[in-house]
């Protein structure tokens, strides 16, 4: 996916500005990418339309390529569709703003992670929010279900409602709320039974409990790995039961996260939490920007673009990239690289944002390229003659001594710089081979 998109954007980059055709072409690929990430077709169509309207006719930011701009527009639309911008007022997480005990009803299909998530939320509320939490299982269908929840309650060090055989889900819910009131619990989490598939009996049972308890939060738990099915599940639960939020589990798997986008679009309910593992502490807040990245598969190119837009001079970057490709990258170019890097923050930080360059990044980090070093290196290069900068091979012992004296450094410093330069040239050749050409031309130079 990443490669596919990079390929398209590579093509776009070579032109001066975005044309209608450019945008159409990029969006054709984006469409496929989104579908591959499990985003539902109507949602994809809607998103693509929105991006097209926004992209065509938009003024091209001078310092980034049109292609990078498209990435950013697609990304921003994704973040928006996932609920970005909400939650600054604390709305995104669980809403406990109600009289105690606040009832939370967990609903969803069997195996989606309801019971586990109940335990996770209980643990978080107890430890982070200092809440007194009561856990109650309304799952009377599977004999082991209530014991499973009690085990999790023990692990989370919260109370589980004592199990009484023969009660209906509604009776258990009633008892839980009673205990919650009498014993002054802050939150009562009601874990319901699931079925393997949506059926009327399940919906009726959940709806009855819901009508009785009037939960402040009704959280639909869905398995991210089920892709399109998750969306159908979410739709059915929203229509038949009504939910206030979604918890997406198994995001620790390799699902692309497209289901999140679809569920959000289809139900209108916010995604509130993510389950990222079997352990009780594997509960995460939902960050629209992170999921957008995961869906688009473009690493953190967007933030690279944001920073590059402010600092990088496109023409200079292109000139440097050409030289690099021809292998005629010299110390003069290295010096102007250093200047760019200085403007943008650390080099390893920049490299870290590009997908697929993790290995090179650690090499750079090992080379200990910090800001002081960058400044010293710039001083050394400015003490060289233009001829020396173009041809570092000229630099024998006596010249090195002169340069060291001129820049207030030592011969070791000069040697270190030359070694660094060699490594950098080699690295850039490798990066070109890695297929990051487009990026380098437009961004890093
Ligand atoms: P329920 O039937 O909806 O109550 O689902 P359970 O809570 O019993 O979970 C079913 C299985 O999924 C269990 O083995 C859990 O350990 C596992 N599980 C739940 N949440 C997650 C998660 O976020 N990641 C992973 N990898 N496994 C999970
Ligand atoms: Mg369960």
Helix-strand layout with pairing:
Layout: H1 2-13, H2 20-36, H3 41-55, H4 66-81, E1 102-107, H5 114-127, E2 133-137, H6 145-156, E3 159-160, H7 169-182, E4 187-191, H8 200-213, E5 217-223, H9 228-240, E6 245-249, H10 258-267, E7 271-275, E8 283-285, H11 288-296, H12 301-311, H13 314-326, H14 331-344, H15 347-352, H16 358-366, H17 371-382, H18 386-390, H19 397-407, H20 411-433, H21 437-444
Helix pairs in contact: 1-2, 1-4, 1-21, 2-3, 3-4, 4-11, 4-12, 5-6, 7-8, 9-10, 13-21, 14-17, 17-19, 19-20
This protein binds guanosine-5'-diphosphate and magnesium ion.
Residues 108, 110-116, 194, 221, 249-250, 252, 275-278, 282 line the site of guanosine-5'-diphosphate.
General description of the model:
This protein has 445 residues and is α/β, with parallel strands linked by helices. The protein folds into three domains: 2-86, Four Helix Bundle (Hemerythrin (Met), subunit A) (Up-down Bundle); 102-285, P-loop containing nucleotide triphosphate hydrolases (Rossmann fold, 3-Layer(aba) Sandwich); 312-444, 434 Repressor (Amino-terminal Domain) (Orthogonal Bundle). Helices cover 58% and strands 9% of the residues. It has 21 helices and eight strands. Strand 7 and strand 8 form a beta hairpin. Helix 1 crosses helix 4. It is elongated, with a radius of gyration of 28 Å. The model is unreliable at 8-15, 349-360 and 435-445 (pLDDT under 50). Magnesium ion binds at residues 114-115, 139, 145, 191.
């Amino acid at each position: 996916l990443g490669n596919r998109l990079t390929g398209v954007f590579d093509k776009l980059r070579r032109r001066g500005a975005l044309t209608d055709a450019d945008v159409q072409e990029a969006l054709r690929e984006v469409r496929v990418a989104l579908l591959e990430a499990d985003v539902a077709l109507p949602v994809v169509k809607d998103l693509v339309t929105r991006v097209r309207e926004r992209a065509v006719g938009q003024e091209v930011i001078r310092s980034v390529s049109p292609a990078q701009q498209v990435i950013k527009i697609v990304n921003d639309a994704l973040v928006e569709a996932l609920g970005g911008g909400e939650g600054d007022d604390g709305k995104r997480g669980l809403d406990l703003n109600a009289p105690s005990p606040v009832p939370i009803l967990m609903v969803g299909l069997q195996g989606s992670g309801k019971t586990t998530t109940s335990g996770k939320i209980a643990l978080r509320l107890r430890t982070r929010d200092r809440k007194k939490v009561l856990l109650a299982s309304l799952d009377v269908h599977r004999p082991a279900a209530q014991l499973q929840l009690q085990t999790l309650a023990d692990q989370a060090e919260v109370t589980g409602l004592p199990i009484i055989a023969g009660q209906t889900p509604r009776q258990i819910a009633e008892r839980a709320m009673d205990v919650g009131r009498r014993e002054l619990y802050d939150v009562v989490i009601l874990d319901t039974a699931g079925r393997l598939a949506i059926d009327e009996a399940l919906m009726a049972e959940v709806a009855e409990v819901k009508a009785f308890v009037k939960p402040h939060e009704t959280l639909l738990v869905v398995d991210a790995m089920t892709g399109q099915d998750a969306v159908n599940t979410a739709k059915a639960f929203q229509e038949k039961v009504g939910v206030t939020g979604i918890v997406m589990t198994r995001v620790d798997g390799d699902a692309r996260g497209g289901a999140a986008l679809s569920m959000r679009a289809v139900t209108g309910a916010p995604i509130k939490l993510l389950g990222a593992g079997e352990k009780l502490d594997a509960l995460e807040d939902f960050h629209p920007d992170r999921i957008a990245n995961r869906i688009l598969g473009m690493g953190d190119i967007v933030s690279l673009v944001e920073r590059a837009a402010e600092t990088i001079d496109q023409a200079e970057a292109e000139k440097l990239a050409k030289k690099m490709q021809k292998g005629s990258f010299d110390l003069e170019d290295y010096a102007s690289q250093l200047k760019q890097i200085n403007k943008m923050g650390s080099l390893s930080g920049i490299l870290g944002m590009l997908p697929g360059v993790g290995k090179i990044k650690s090499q750079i980090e090992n080379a200990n390229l910090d800001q002081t070093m960058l400044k010293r290196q710039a001083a050394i290069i400015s003490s060289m003659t233009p001829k020396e900068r173009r041809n570092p091979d000229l630099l024998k012992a006596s010249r090195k001594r002169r340069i060291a004296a001129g820049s207030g450094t030592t011969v070791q410093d000069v040697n270190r710089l030359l070694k660094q330069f060699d490594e950098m040239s080699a690295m850039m050749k490798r990066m070109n081979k890695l297929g990051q050409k487009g990026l380098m031309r437009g961004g890093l130079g």
